[in-house]
Automatic annotation (TrEMBL), chain A:
InterPro entries, A to Z: PhaG_MnhG_YufB (IPR005133)
Pfam families: PhaG_MnhG_YufB (PF03334)
Name assigned to this protein: Multicomponent Na+:H+ antiporter subunit G
Keywords: Membrane, Transmembrane, Transmembrane helix
PANTHER family: ANTIPORTER SUBUNIT MNHG2-RELATED (PTHR34703:SF1)
Provenance organism: Halorubrum aquaticum
Any GO molecular function: sodium:proton antiporter activity
Stretches that traverse the bilayer: 12-32, 44-65, 72-95
From TrEMBL, chain B:
Region Disordered, annotated ranges: 339-405
Chain segments annotated as transmembrane: 171-188, 194-214
Native species: Halorubrum aquaticum
Keyword terms: Cell membrane, Membrane, Transmembrane, Transmembrane helix
Location(s), subcellular: Cell membrane
GO molecular function, one term: monoatomic cation transmembrane transporter activity
Lineage, highest ranks first: Archaea, Methanobacteriati, Methanobacteriota, Stenosarchaea group, Halobacteria
Compositional bias annotation for Low complexity: 377-396
Topology in membrane: Multi-pass membrane protein
Keyword field contains ATP-binding: no
Name of this chain's protein: Multicomponent Na+:H+ antiporter subunit E
Amino acid sequence: MIDALGPARLALIVVFSLLGLFFTFVSMTGVIRLPDVYSRAHTASQADTLGAGFTLAAVALAAGWEGTGFKAVLLVFFIFVTNPTAAHAIARAAFEEGTVPWTEGDERR
Amino acid sequence: MVDAPKRGSVVVPVESTPTLRATVTHLVESAAGGEFSSIHFVVFATWRRDDPDTADREAAVDRLLERVATWAEADLADVDDVEVGDVEVVTAIVGDDEYLFGADDYVRELAAYADEHDAETVVLDPEYTPVGNTTLLQPLEFALSSTDLAVREAPVTRPTRRERLRKEATGIRFAATFALSLAFYLALGDPLYWFDLASGVASAAVVAITLSRISLDADPSLSRTPIRLLRGAVYVPALLYEILKSNVVVARVILDPRMPIDPTLNRVRVIVGSGLPITTLANSITLTPGTLTVRARDGNLYVHSLIPWARDGLFDGSLERWTRFVFYGREAARLPTPRERDDVGIFQGPDATEEYPGTRADGGSIPEESTREDSPDAPAADGPVADAAASNAPAADGDEEVTAE
């Protein structure tokens, strides 16, 4: 299958995959390093949106516009709608519970 | 009447429900029985007075209130032991000076109205939900219990015409939700394979039955929806660019060994409608790295920002202008930034401009003040000195914490 792809397209697929990996790595790092539930919700949803976005873009490029590629694009849209919704649900639940966001000087939680 | 001084006013929020007719009758009978001297039927506006495209919604509400007034008059005429003039029937629209997002907002408007008109009682139509869309919000009854108002539900049952009325009220929304769900399902599946068709129809039916009243708070309009979709198609690339830009900035902050974050909770009063527009805006804000929508309340969005850069972007309001462009057109997108309108607030940190809203866990033992006082590293000093001292203890790798400008 790889032989059938042009070199430019192949390069783009590799670049997108690497970018996807990079942003997923950033997301993971953020979840570990950031100090509280609000800031973790930022990175868990956001860097991941781009991580999954680039990965699916690579999939779409590899699969071509018909069939699988089209579905990959739809999935990107799906993630872009559901991901912030989930992050908002987590943040809102924390707020309702009375969790005050971490500010400089607080202990990590 | 002899007991006239004792009788008060009652406020009844209404919308077009199958039980509205019976609720009106119940109220008129209660009033005739001496319980109330005046009945206020009120509708919550889902628009702001100066919005474009609201004439049809206003007209619909006017028709509803007119109908209610006519019913009340007819019922009063039917009651023998009361003169028509003894009971006052008032209709009103409340809350059209700002957007109402949730039960909190409705209750605030309702309480203000009741206060203004010396009403002590609220009677709810059992089928009433504010603006028909808000099963996701805490129920109105619950929010009302925090006020001084006496609340009760009208003891009426659904008329037998209910099924027909319900279908009339939600037919278009049902069809729209069904069609969209089915289209998405078949796009992922194979539209020519009988199994996918059958399971798609079944799934779309389940989605439409359960969610059509929630996901659409107004009938989709054939004239406005296509143009909104077109404008949305313009918005998506712009949003993608914003996401990409912010992602790079936030990624750099997260990977920086010193991790120079300065998170705060902020408030921004946004000028977009309730329902789909505010959802779009809140979701866009959350999608953009560095900002996270925590709550929508009192016409405000509470947004958590990770770094001052993201907060400044939020206060510049570009996403708000885009949302107004998508839903109301280019004219409506020209408005001053939230910062220029003075519609912003910061709840935390050295730049704080407002009190922290809402409750703090454990009656305030976790919040920053007490943490600072209890911390052995913090001397009995206030403000920035205590800040700096306390920040050294938890942040082992952060001797040079970068503070906000």
